[in-house]
Amino acid sequence: MSSKPFNPAATIKDVAAQAGVSVMTVSNVLRGRGRVSEETRKRVLETAERQGYRPNLTARALVEGKAPTLALMLSCITNPFYPEFALAANLEALRHERHLLVCNTDHEPDGGSGFLEQVAGSLSDGVLVANNGDLPMDELLRLQERGIPVVISVWELPDDLPDIPCVTFDSKAAGKLAVEHLVELGHRRIGAIIGSPKHGIHGGRYAGFRDVMRAAKIKPSAADERFTKDSFEHGYEAGKDLLSARPDLTAIFVSNDLPALGVMNAASDLGYSVPDDLSIVSITDIIPARQSRPGLTTVAIPTAEMAEKGVSLLVELMAGRATESTVVHTSPPTLVVRGSTAAPAASR
Amino acid sequence: MSSKPFNPAATIKDVAAQAGVSVMTVSNVLRGRGRVSEETRKRVLETAERQGYRPNLTARALVEGKAPTLALMLSCITNPFYPEFALAANLEALRHERHLLVCNTDHEPDGGSGFLEQVAGSLSDGVLVANNGDLPMDELLRLQERGIPVVISVWELPDDLPDIPCVTFDSKAAGKLAVEHLVELGHRRIGAIIGSPKHGIHGGRYAGFRDVMRAAKIKPSAADERFTKDSFEHGYEAGKDLLSARPDLTAIFVSNDLPALGVMNAASDLGYSVPDDLSIVSITDIIPARQSRPGLTTVAIPTAEMAEKGVSLLVELMAGRATESTVVHTSPPTLVVRGSTAAPAASR
DNA sequence: CTGAAAGCGCTAACAC
DNA sequence: GTGTTAGCGCTTTCAG
After folding, report:
1. Which intervals hold domain HTH lacI-type (chains A, B) (predicted)?
2. Among chain A residues, CA nearest to B99
3. Chain C footprint bases within 7 A of protein beta carbons
4. pLDDT over 50 (residue B95)
5. Which residues pair with A128 in a beta bridge?
6. Does B52 contact A at CB distance below 8 Å?
7. What residues does each domain of chain B span?
8. How does DSSP assign B168-203, residue by residue?
9. Which residue of A has its CA nearest to B288?
């Protein structure tokens, strides 16, 4: 029997043999390259279809010296910021015909070193790193020296750049917008809960807070500030701590939505009514910010844009159209007013 | 000069040449296989280190006929169930020395067909599919016929299995637990909001609801039930609709946490106080369920276990230690009581 | 214990 | 238009 119909493991060779042409012709037809007569084209296509042929992307990657994937490093996908970031990155990667390999550094015993070591430049052509304030810069630089494209996204300080191409946003402006909103509402007793050390990843957001406080001639007090970690639970604890110590605060600026949602619960559990007794504002605008009651007033940062531009930059880097000192800026942050902020009780 | 120190693109050949051995010896040393003298071993290791050699996983995959990745298909990573699932799947995959390629079917124009076509059996050895009630069974079966391992996880009906190996949990028992909790609290006027058609993915959960209602001799009324989609917003809308139409309900069973959180907001926006005026219970126990105020009473399903067992089953399948009819069961669901449920006002 | 040869599936370069 | 040759980086034979 001269007709082999369906071959679950058909290779390009099988198709070529069956169609009576060379493998190169099959390759050309399938990739739409080279010149092939319409007749042969049809025959090859039919044969491939009949055999159920599908190209082996691994083989293609090896010979082309180019992987069909990109690596994405983030701290933990269960932090609601990252699914939004990862989705946008994924879609942009797809536009460049690439799939995404994800590493949750928080849960890798080695913080992702093994992932980078194995994947970067081998399974994946480049690495997109979502900044979490605790990046293994040494390793990233080492990869870059090897010629492997590395991009850091969500870089918070446009004026203080890393030695790696990055996508940045103006975190200080975001902090300012948030606190200006409080000041304009009439608040003077404003506390701050920062999801990092003072000079950590939220340092820019904190600087924005300080700037506005100074401009408003409000004397800052360390007693009104808390530095903690960037999680719901840490926000909750810091909120309880701060509100217990400083019950006269009328508003709190939180450096990030996730801890801010924790602060909202802390306020609620302490008997505060938000926004009547206490206003809360933060930064990011993750999906849960609009699902809480009251909704969280926050300064939206361009999350999806940072993911997309991160992937694009990676692709540009691979094409030699960007360099190690390329910096990509994103749209300015914008205030999103919801129910968690109002004028202080005294002024009403 | 006989010493080439660091070579960013070193291949196994370079290491071999430099160490004065054959590539095979290098391979053996690096993989810890074959017999190599301690002396040669050390020399090879040193050379590899010095050159900064890292094996090319793509080449290895090609020759071994085995990919270092697994594919994960889910509807959308921004639905908080999936990050929890994906993280557990990722960690389990890592235990089997594999990375994860993720596809968000909701956002692929073709619902993931292209992903499967490209990735399954080529970039990835197998596919783990997180059931969302709208699976492309034809395609999955076609992959399976090709010999590509496919596993469906989060299968809701242990008594009604697909023709594909799956990881299942007892969704009907989960529905029962939830509604029994309401009945035990003294509720009789109980509504239901289901995040799928009646016989859709939440059909098992709904059947559990019906069973308990019948056992409690509560006459079910279609007017107290709503069938909608599985999202926060759809839950919100259905909640508003149901509560407006049936203001005398004292409790609502929602088939899933995400729409249940929407229902909580709907109740709040309509002036209901939860749980004083209205109890709400649902199923899943996603992270946001414990972060809402009040906390959401829910029936926890073994999310991480289903992800882990899904990956393990995939690996077993690849090793020929499982078949196309293998079914893996998971731990029974358990009730988690939080603040969203209480005895009805009348009985207090 | 170590090496040489063959080949995984595919494509780039060049011949016919 | 189409075929041939070579080789991507690695591992699996099977000799030595």
Report:
1. 10-64
2. A101
3. 1-5, 7-14
4. yes
5. A72, A151
6. yes
7. 12-55, 64-169+302-331, 171-301
8. E--HHHHHHHHHHHHHHHT--SEEEEESS-TTSTTH
9. A288
Distance A17 CA to D2 C1' (A): 14
Kindly indicate the confidence band of residue A1, based on its pLDDT and cuts at 50, 70 and 90.
very low
The reply to whether B57 touches chain A by the CB within 8 Å rule is yes
Residue A190 CB contacts under 8 Å (≥ 6 apart), including other chains: A179, A182, A183, A213, A218, A224, A249, A250, A251, A252, A253
Which CATH superfamily, name and number, covers A171-301? Response regulator (3.40.50.2300)
- B64-169+302-331 and B171-301: identical CATH topology: yes
Q: Is B293 on the interface with A (CB under 8 A)?
A: yes
pLDDT of A10 over the 70 cut = yes
- How is domain A64-169+302-331 classified at the CATH fold level? Rossmann fold (3.40.50)
| Nearest chain A Cα distance for residue B123, angstroms | 6
Alpha-carbon distances of B255 from A174, A214, A217, rounded to whole Å: 39, 51, 52
Does residue B348 have a pLDDT over 60?
A: no
pLDDT, position A3: 53
B117 touches chain A (CB under 8 A): yes
Please compute the mean of the pLDDT values over residues B95-121 and round it to a whole number: 94
pLDDT digits (tens, 9 = 90+) for A228-252: 999 999 999 999 999 999 999 999 9
Smallest CA–CA distance, residue B159 to chain A, in Å, is 31
Q: In Å, what is the separation between the CA of B24 and the C1' of C3? A: 8
The answer to whether B345 and B302 are in contact (CB under 8 A) is no
Interface with B, mutate which of A30, A51, A58 (most B CBs under 10 A) = A58
Residues 147-166 on A with a CB inside 8 Å of B are 147
Binned at pLDDT 50, 70 and 90, residue A70 comes out as very high
A12-55: which CATH number, 3.20.20.30, 1.10.10.10, 3.40.50.2300, 1.10.260.40? 1.10.260.40
| Residues A95-128: b if buried by 16+ CB within 10 A, e if exposed | eeebbbbbbbbbbbeebbeebbbbbbbbbbbbbb
